[in-house]
Amino acid sequence: MSYYLSTVAVYFGVDLMAAWALNMQFGWAGVPNFAFIIFQAAGAYTAAAVSLGPDTGANAFQHYILGAQLPFPVPLLVAALAGGVVSAVVGLLTLRRLRRDYQAAVFLLIAVIASDVVAADVNLFNGSNGLAAVPQPLAGLAASLGQAGWQWAYAGFVAVICIGVALLSRRLGGSGWQRALRAARDDEVAASALGLHPPLMRMQVFMIGGVIAGLSGGLLVMFISAWSPGAWQYSETFAVLTGIILGGVSNDWGVLIGTFLVQVLFVEVPSFLPQIGYPGLIDALVWVLIGVMWLLVLFFRPSGIWPERRRRVLSRLRARAGAGGR
Q1: Do the Cβ atoms of 23 and 173 come closer than 8 Å?
Q2: How far is residue 277's CA from residue 16's CA, in Å, rounded to a whole number?
Q3: How many C-alpha atoms does 272 have within 13 Å on its Cβ side?
Q4: DSSP 3-state assignment of 227?
Q5: Ramachandran sector of residue 116 (left: φ over 0; alpha: ψ -120 to 50; beta: rest)
Q6: How far is CA 283 from CA 235, 276, 286, in A?
Q7: pLDDT tens by residue, 49-76
Q8: Given 35, 143, 157, 215, which is the most exposed site by the fewest CB atoms within 10 A?
Q9: What is the pLDDT of residue 17?
Q10: Rounded Cα–Cα distance for residues 178 and 252 (Å)
């Protein structure tokens, strides 16, 4: 049970970081990023490739690029950088010239194309087999604490990173820059008339979300010691987005609650259920449940469990002006 709980803790931390990152893009800026999972996958692949060493000798059975053996936690920094670079490339293609409805379609197409290309190219990404034998960080700690102790220590490390991401989100979420993003999200024409530059701001938050996504992918791949393109399909983005919508878009605490409900209760708990029907039926039903849940929330509670908090900036300014006058 200790192994399972520590594994769930790590997965929840990774999923929560991903949800906060996507919430910045979708909740703050209104960017329908259905290609979000490729930023996380890029970070995961890069962290694995710069940890494995060259694809020769013991690693000759698999092919990859960027073969290096960087010390921990440098691979995580490289993973965050990879997520940022990929998000910058995708953002340049989609954010400036396309309407939001077209953006959603293009993002989805990019995710599907990226998945097919990665799975087909053996020389670059080892094809559908993915990467294996990724060295776990701090192996000496595992030798002294045991595997269960190492997993809890890693879960604690992930929790520290989560707290850092939460503080960053809270800091940015209370800034004038985030309020400008929301203004551009709600009415781009009015925001532009006020002198704001919506495309530039969306690009900024898009890259910040990409960096966090890449970091979360790196944390996950160094924990499970493997990377496979089959685990990073576009449908995973919908699971993250479902948690955001269920908990409350543009609300960090709501996103935390929604992510726990979707990623832990609805995705992890069914693995304990007895097998019914044909193999894989329960997994398929989980995705059906996620889709039904999304529809129910959109119909009956579109603001989510914990709705976005409305900030009355004008009334605060008037109060301050009145206090100054007295």
Answers
A1: no
A2: 32
A3: 9
A4: strand
A5: alpha
A6: 13, 11, 5
A7: 999 888 877 777 888 888 888 988 999 9
A8: 143
A9: 96
A10: 13
Residue with tokens 């000798």: 57
Candidate from 10-24, 108-122, 134-148, 163-177 with smallest mean pLDDT: 134-148
Tell me phi and psi for residue 131, to 5 degrees.
-115, 145
**Sequence spans of domains, the chain:** 2-233, 234-326
DSSP, collapsed to helix, strand or coil, labels residue 136 as coil
pTM over 0.85: yes
Cis check for the bond before 270: say yes or no (omega within 30 of 0). Answer: no
CA distance 263 to 9: 11
Q: Look at residue 118 in the predicted model and tell me its pLDDT.
A: 87
Q: Give the list of residues 6+ apart from residue 309 with CB closer than 8 angstroms, or none.
A: 251
Q: What is the DSSP letter of 127?
A: G
pLDDT, the chain, mean: 86
Least confident of 3-17, 57-71, 149-163: 57-71
What are 40's two structure tokens? 């996380």
What's the CA gap between 172 and 75, in Å, rounded? Answer: 26
Q: Write the CB contacts of 70 (distance below 8 Å, at least 6 apart in sequence).
A: 50, 51, 78
Provide the pLDDT for residue 42: 94
